[in-house]
Amino acid sequence: MKKMLYIITILYLSCGYYSFKGSIPSHINSVIISPIENITSEFLITDLLNEKLLELMLLENILDIVTFENADSKIDIMIKSITDKPNVYSIEENSQYEVVNEWKISINVQITWYDLINNKNILDKTINEWVTYSLGIDISQDNLDNDLDGLIDEEDSDEYGTPREGSLRIILDKISNRILNELTSTW
Q: Which CATH architecture best describes the domain 35-184?
């Protein structure tokens, strides 16, 4: 029994040591997130992405978020594009006109993570994410898997709100998670 407890303790401690911080360079313990640059006409998403990313980084406790003077690294983010495109069409009954039944919104974000101690880029990557929505129908009732997580409408806790607004919220969640994943999988 003691031997089994010893093995479980060793495994637990080994797994506890392997964390997100294990994949980040050892000399980097803190980060400054520069103000997000947005070259699109959707100004609201800058604040929303900043809030989502800060919330996620604080929740995951990967790096200390500090002022520039105290930072070991810096994250620069640029929102490069947002596009809404028709995704699914149908022919209107008794008509020859096509109707858009589903839209696809895509966001393209450039992320650069810079090592302020060694003066070099750790990460420089473009992230693209997208979701779908139907116009005029609350996304909690549109029978679409808006964020492609396998859940639809009332089954999915993040599918609520007006079509485009709800889709922007979902896509910014996806982008924040992707940024966090990129930061923790660089090394």
A: 2-Layer Sandwich (3.30)
